[in-house]
User: Fold these one by one.
Assistant:
Number 1:
Amino acid sequence: MKILMLSWEYPPKVIGGLARAVADLSQALVEEGHEVSVVTGDWPESEQTEYVHGVRVYRVNQFFPKPMGFLDEVHFMNYHLVQKGAELLSHVDFDLIHAHDWLVAPSAKVLKHAFQKPLVCTIHATEWGRNNGLHNDLQRHISDLEWWLTYESYRVICCSEYMRAELRRIFQVPEDKLSVIPNGVRAEDFTNVHEDLDTWRNNWARPDEEIVLYVGRHVYEKGIDLLLSAAPKVLWHRPQTKFIIAGKGPCLDELKKQAWDLGLGEKTHFPGFIDDRSRNSLYRLAEAAVFPSRYEPFGIVALEAMAGQAPVIVSDVGGFGETVRHGENGLTFYAGNANSLADNILHLLGDKAFARSLNERAALDLKEKFDWNQIARQTVESFKQVALKPHEHKEFYERYQLTSTFPERGERVRESSNHGRW
């Protein structure tokens, strides 16, 4: 198949987990014998056109005209995505367009109708879920764009049964329009560590200290404040613990203040953004990798920690419940409960043999359930359901009467399941 992907981020531009998921999926699709072109936003020091692991990557200028704010940046990027997408579609007979999240919804919709190509989208998260509801005009606008993308798409892919239920509940996406396909991880990407780990470790912790690690964005839904709240109890029982909280985000200053107010002092370290090699090395050294999210559609970061050979502790929310099984390949704690989190950390720190057994089971799960090539094959099967030519959809057209009517959001009409198929 020939697939045109639209994504607002692609490595080395990595804002969240979306970039890594799009890159790994596109590479796996190429390895399975398909042709993939990705049109995405630009990034400093990146080529405008790249050939990355067999994937053709086209980067467009998203900062011209100079945006007045975040939404302007998104919409200007979409103008450029349409331009580049139209150029490619005029010369290549793509089988379908695959759009990732609301940030590319306008360009996906335009290209779908202009070139009469099937549109598939992947919803990686929702604005409603990230904020536990919609509380201002910006959030409502983003949620409307998410709904619009699911409405215009022939097929909607999500990463967990949890997300399937969320899309059904929030956007009333018809059941027969949804596919649940998990994200994966390339374990080999986490083998590159610093050569002399013992010496390198001295930059982060004393020889007698046990490392509890968090890696990710510093935003409210990731629950880092819960980890800090759990730290005093952990330190009371195991004063040799060292908390390393890597990453960046709008909550960083607030989290540093919380650590100071709790008297954590030198027992917490906020290194900011870390490169992949440092991340891999810290996973290898950590006694526990903790991800205390309040909202997590899938939780690819838990798989990354497993690939880095770190025992994982996650909250029992969202997709985490489908990747981490308590006491088998990791530990889970009651979401929002710092005391429960502290108890789980103490369990891992106090039983190294148990921690090793979790790692062994996790490594097996990565091979059996979360291999990207297997996931790519599942994705292609979902693509094939919509990549047929119009005359091959006779049964479909007899069942659904296509309409140009655009229903109100949430209106339950039969046509909304497959509006605008061709």
Number 2:
Amino acid sequence: MRNSIQLFLFFLMSIFSCSAHAILSMELTRGVAGAIPIAVVPFAGQSGLPQIPSTIVITDLSNSGRFKVYDANSLTQFPNEASKVSPTYFRSLGTDNVVVGNITNLGGDRYQVNFQLLDMFRGAGKASIVLNKQFTVSSRELRAVAHHISDLIYEQITGTRGVFSTKMAYVLIQKFQGAKPHYVLEVSDQDGFNPRSMLDSVQPIMSPSWSPDGRRIAYVSFEKDTASIYIQDVATGARRLVSAFPGINGAPSWSPDGRKLALVLSKSGSPNIYILDMATNNLTQITNDFSINTEPSFSPDGKSLLFTSTRGGGLQIYEVNLANRSIARITYDGNYNARASYTHDGKYISMIHRVDNNYNIGILDLDTGKIRVLNNMITDSASPSIAPNGSMILYDTIHAGRNVLAMVSADGRVQLRMPSRNGDAQDPAWSPYLN
């Protein structure tokens, strides 16, 4: 199984368009006990449409692990607006909330989508309307508006902004008999649908990293037989080479303001952390020693960097203050901790944490100093990437002999797996919120 040091050694040794077959299929493997009950009634007028909004909302909420969803198979009443809802019936099911809606064709390829979120217990004798929204979209936008509806419902009920409208980037490795493997940098919806190829190469691609505005991705490509760092525009595909020094060019990581890129270079000997100013191309060396220093990640305020280093013997996580270059060790629990990044509130750090020779997803509580293992799998985990709301961590692991993407909630209670239909998926990166 790949892990941080193996990726690094790969650097040392190195000194297709997307199709439906590459779609990732999300499967909930563990949900929250006592999940919030909610009924999602099939939207009226959606029959025959290529993408069915209420079905996507059901899947989103179910796969969050935080909702027990009553769908068409569980219902005998199918109202499409608040005035037709029987609170007595839905209360008898034990549902706290009900989603109803309808879709109207406005002519041609224009559709009006209406939905309401109702609270069965807030009103006196009748359902109370909590959300009441209307959208006008084309047929190809129905999936996106459904994810947006899921986000609105999730935030209204849990108090946390949803991530169903976000994206993820990952590397898909496709192997063909008698030919070199193809490495495809793909971007897809958060649920694995609508995959789009950004780069297809017979040379390795790794370490995709989203810019804070979600418009660009930095990554490492070996397309010229040596490691180089590129930045690519997600919308246009335009890209530029930003680092191609002799030796290692690796592990790009954006600053919170999107103006700088932390990276790993070995141009002066040992691998060290540098910061590249995107506007001036000025390069500043941050660490300067003979240890392995890799996997930089900015703090939420941009004033420090987490990184992985061998300076204490085994691989551990350190933090460098960018103002005075002072370095402090962050992890002491266990003999291997790597690939660290802060949650967006700065209270926790996610990482790869080794337990009994297995590499798992761990999270460090900065108040208590304790690391908690979230997935505790018998197969190794790698490349953790935190959702923008901090609720889930995306990573890659082995399932049924293949590299697949998976998710675990920050409290460890929800787990999902996303096997691809063709190839091995690795190095995932969760996008920021997209406006």
Number 3:
Amino acid sequence: MVASGRRLSTCLVSLTCLSLSVAAFGQATKSTQTPMGTATGEAVATPASAGYAVPDPVPDLKPDEPGFFEVKPGLVVLLDHTGFSQDEASLQQMGEQRNKWELRAGRLMLNGSIGGGYRVGFQLSGEYKGFDGDPDTTWQLTDMSLSFPIGSRTKLQVGKTKETFAYEMVGDAANLPGAERVLSPFFISRNTGLKLTHVWGPAKRGTFSAGVYNDDWDIGAKERRGVDASGRITALLWAPEDAGRYLHLGLSARHVAAKGEMRYRGRPGSNVSDYFVDTGKFTADGALHLGVEGLLSLNGFGLLGEYVVADVDAPASGNPRFTGWYLAGNWILTGDHRPYDRNVGYARRVVPKGRWGAPELVVRYSDVDLRDGPIDGGRFRRTDLGVNWWATHRWKLGLAWGHVWLDRMGVRGQTDTILSRVQWVY
């Protein structure tokens, strides 16, 4: 496994050098909270002139010409209620899971840039709870970074930011069809270090990103593992002139450091439940995570899937292998779609064209298995059926039912969840 880590690091360095060597003049590497969907990365127009039936508390502001100092505020607010129903085996495994209201996320963001001809970008955000952090942590500094352009389609980001691994984490959770991530045992949200991002060619048909991180520098980190390295490469294999039709594929890798021990654990698509799968701490020297992802959009229809495998360097436990995957389908009844952002290699949130917004039906199946050899962290399988109403380009209301099968402690328990959500993104 140590040799695997060295091979990954060598690969990342080589790919980084390649990205720098091919950077050329073209469209700027830039991405904001505004959804992007065109070949040039221009913002998708919102039907502000027609007006949505559901009012927004904050009006759209016309952007000013950027001066020496430019700043754009952002705010994300999500309010949830989760209800549980368990059979006797589930109660035996996990104890009673209580129905809860939760301010799921309250994030304040400041994005902007400084400079004249050469502009340095900055990102600062903090939040109460939130999608991307440890659910046991109430307040956290989410992002604090500077971005330095290198050529026209490459940037170097320095500071606390997302690691470059797995579509579920790289993409904004508020944009995903499902309400909650399911592959959380295999990634962390944020880390502190250096991250390079490059967009391939003037048409932006792919991205490459790689980073090296050290959580010893991370403000507020509960555990210190040391140096992680990750990389992700994406390709837009099919993208006709219709912006709602495209095929995206991606590969990612992550070498995880360990200071003598590791632990994998996760919740089954819920932020308020206990950890249904949990290996506990075990002796290990590190791990290599590999992932593959795919996204197909046919205007109102979409299909998103991922598979992740973790090969753990833990000889005392037989070098276990853990896996996780999901497949999600969605149908936006109005024919609207998630615009694809070619600058970052994932789809943004739905921007409804009609006055009454866009209703969306969602189905998902997921499977996370943390059992191998002497380690029995459990396995959960989950089905989800949900409906989202994208009332405006900021408001979303969602209702999702999930059924979980948990194999752990020698028994199989079953749990049903009902999640209601109100989401507003500015």
Number 4:
Amino acid sequence: MSRIVVGLSGGVDSSVAAYLLKEQGHDVVALFMVNWHERVGNITSACTWEEDALIARMVAKKLDIPFHIVDLSVDYKKRVVDYMFAEYQAGRTPNPDVLCNREIKFDTFLNEAMKFDADFVATGHYCRKTEFVKNGKLIHQLLAGKDPNKDQSYFLCQLNQQQLSKAIFPIGNLLKPKVREIAREQNLPTAERKDSQGICFVGKVDLPTFLQQQLQPKPGNIIEIPASFMAKKKQIEIIEENYNKLCFPFPYKPWNGKIIGEHQGAHYYTIGQRKGLNIGGHKEPLFVIATDVKRNIIYVGEGRNHPGLHRKGLFVKAEEMHWIRPDLKMETGEKREFDIRIRYRQPLEKGTIHLKDEGAYFLFDNEQRGITPGQFAAWYSDDELIGSGVIQ
């Protein structure tokens, strides 16, 4: 049997993961991560890391496994939070959960786990891992979790083969109700605990308040773009077959619409956002269709079906293309069909990746709503996650 360090978070998923490994006869060690200390002005939930740690310790005691705490807050701030602020400042919308997994859980935390002579690191993610040998080399596959409502493979889309070689996902074959059932049967302290929400290890936050810690308010104009304007532009692009244009955000100009209000900073908003605009007088809700942080302008459109919310494609720079399966890496000039996801819990969408020298152009069979620069596009073959990249 193996020595396995479990990232015990104080939630039900990691608790059941630890229980299952113990039942299988492994030498299990619980390690709790402290990644965030600050509270003033950002945390809106009552839960703190001290409370999580206390409950995690209770779980470890119940399972009769060693419990340790490691403080990773310095690395977390530098590699996740500072990155977040920089991306919002640049007008992009980052995914801190993807970064947390790549930079913290399966890097800094994994290194800490190795100090306990661990063979593997286990987490409570709803995903699966399999292995096979190809040309004499062991290949690790990252697969979607069996629970379609909880599949978290997307959050691990930036992992590499070395990280996967040390990873174990004990609950990946289970449905969430079954995980709860196991926790209740074993009287685990986390059995009825609600799932965590918000930014990875920071908690449930009011995002504008959180961002205002480093990004100062800066009043600017909200400009509404008529649906008729975008519909006409799209017809021209389709006639010209200019698919390069279809893969990038439309370059709105202030004269394309009319000023209808004021915001407190373009860097606080993201594509598809509805809340926080505080503008009335419209039959349908307004949605953010673009942000311009240089001019400090937010462009909005009326209704969920506004043409500005939908795009045929996206672009990922060559240096941002990450292959979980390097053996399946595409060659320049090649095109290949995949199932593609542009955000967590979004249904997989059919599309084709066209790889060029400068990067990859993703063209979808159907237009996609709310493609957002800074988020990750992940591509799958059946239920296997093949690679991912940052949307431009």
